[in-house]
Write a structure and sequence with these properties.
Elements lengths: L6 E2 L18 E4 L5 H21 L5 E9 L5 E4 L9 E8 L12 E3 L16 E3 L6 E5 L5 E3 L6 E9 L3
Antiparallel strand pairs: 1-2, 2-3, 3-10, 4-9, 5-8, 5-10, 6-7, 6-9
Bound molecules: 2-oxoglutaric acid and fe (ii) ion.
């Protein structure tokens, strides 16, 4: 654990969790209710959870969230946040803490087509390219949209969160 609370991000959970720097190079810090801002974020997520359950009947049970810090050149290769039958992450939230982020800084989040789509999709072509700029919020179903983080020329701070089903 670094002095500032960040540590190397691992892949997988519990005993299967491992740090694999070939896939992801970022550092993370879990968000608990450690500050007023953190509490506001968790309260906002709780209201969104109730709203999604009320209107989309998703049965979301809990929320977990972390900061992630990518140093220049670091990345996260294409992955899904959940696998059918193996994880209970249902909805992914991403938001960014980077002022004045320009296209030339790179660091895009690339989102690939829904893996259950019926229509033929061009392999390897993203459906969205998102600059990690302050004020942007991305929401998608965790087990359906592969995504990756491209390297940036500046440090890149994000907040990721997942609504989960009951374990
Ligand atoms: O920081 C991002 O844009 C995405 C991070 C991500 O995909 C993850 O933490 O699972
Ligand atoms: Fe992800």
């Amino acid at each position: 654990m670094e002095a500032d609370g960040f540590r190397n991000a691992a892949i997988g959970r519990g005993v299967q969790s491992q740090v694999n720097t070939g896939v992801r190079r970022d550092e993370i810090a879990w968000i608990e209710a450690q500050s007023h801002t953190a509490r506001l974020w968790l309260e906002w997520a709780e209201r969104l959870r109730l709203h999604l359950n009320r209107h989309l009947y998703l049965g979301l049970f809990s929320f977990e969230s972390h900061f992630a810090r990518y140093q220049p050149g670091q990345f996260y290769q294409t992955h899904l946040d959940a696998f059918r039958g193996r994880s209970n992450r249902v909805v992914t939230l991403l938001t960014y803490l980077n002022h004045d982020w320009l296209k030339q800084h790179g660091g895009e989040l690339l989102i690939y087509p829904d893996n259950r789509s019926e229509s033929p999709v061009a392999l390897g072509v993203s459906v969205a390219s998102v600059l990690p700029a302050l004020g942007t919020l991305v929401v998608f179903l965790s087990d359906r949209f592969p995504h990756e983080v491209l390297p940036a020329t500046r440090p890149r701070l994000s907040v990721a969160g997942w609504f989960r089903l009951n374990e």
